[in-house]
């Protein structure tokens, strides 16, 4: 089956439009995530799987260790982890 130049151009334009939409949507989602504070991230991520201990349950150093462990379990970015730890330490 042969694709004509006209059909190829149409397919290419649709593909570029789809990539543009995905890129713009990803930027919007990334910005919304970056704007979330530690309390919001904590409530959305930590409490979805278990009851979270109170913020005074661990020392500041222990919260860093807990944060490193839970980052991989909850698939958090380093920035998200740091915001949550800062929230729990204050």
- Mean pLDDT across all residues, rounded? 81
CATH fold-level label of the largest domain: Cytochrome Bc1 Complex, Chain D, domain 2
How are helices and strands ordered from N to C?
HHHH
Helix content bin? over 70%
- CATH level 1 class label of the largest domain: Mainly Alpha
What's the N-to-C terminus distance?
Answer: 66 Å
Q: How many strand units?
A: 0
Shape: rod-shaped
Which percent range describes the beta-strand content?
Answer: under 5%
Which CATH architecture of the largest domain would you pick?
A: Orthogonal Bundle
Secondary structure category = mainly alpha
Brief overview:
By secondary structure, this protein is mostly helical.
What would your notes on this structure say?
- It is a single chain.
- With 90 residues, the protein is mainly alpha-helical.
- The protein has 2 domains: 1-35; 37-90, Cytochrome Bc1 Complex, Chain D, domain 2 (Orthogonal Bundle), CATH 1.10.760.
- Helix content is 72%, strand content 0%.
- The protein contains 4 helices and no strands.
- The protein has helices at residues 5-34, 38-45, 60-74, 78-89.
- Helix 2 packs across helix 4 and helix 3 packs antiparallel against helix 4.
- The longest helix is centred in the first third of the chain and has 30 residues, at 5-34.
- The model has no long low-confidence stretch (mean pLDDT 81).
Walk me through the topology.
Elements: H1 5-34, H2 38-45, H3 60-74, H4 78-89
């Amino acid at each position: 089956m042969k694709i004509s130049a006209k059909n190829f151009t149409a397919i290419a334009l649709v593909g570029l439009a789809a990539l543009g939409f995905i890129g713009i949507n990803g930027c919007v989602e990334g910005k919304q995530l970056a704007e979330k504070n530690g309390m919001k991230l904590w409530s959305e991520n930590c409490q979805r799987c278990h009851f979270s201990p109170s913020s005074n349950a661990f020392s500041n150093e222990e919260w860093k260790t807990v944060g490193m462990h839970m980052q991989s379990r909850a698939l958090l970015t380093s920035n998200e982890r740091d915001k949550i730890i800062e929230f729990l330490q204050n």
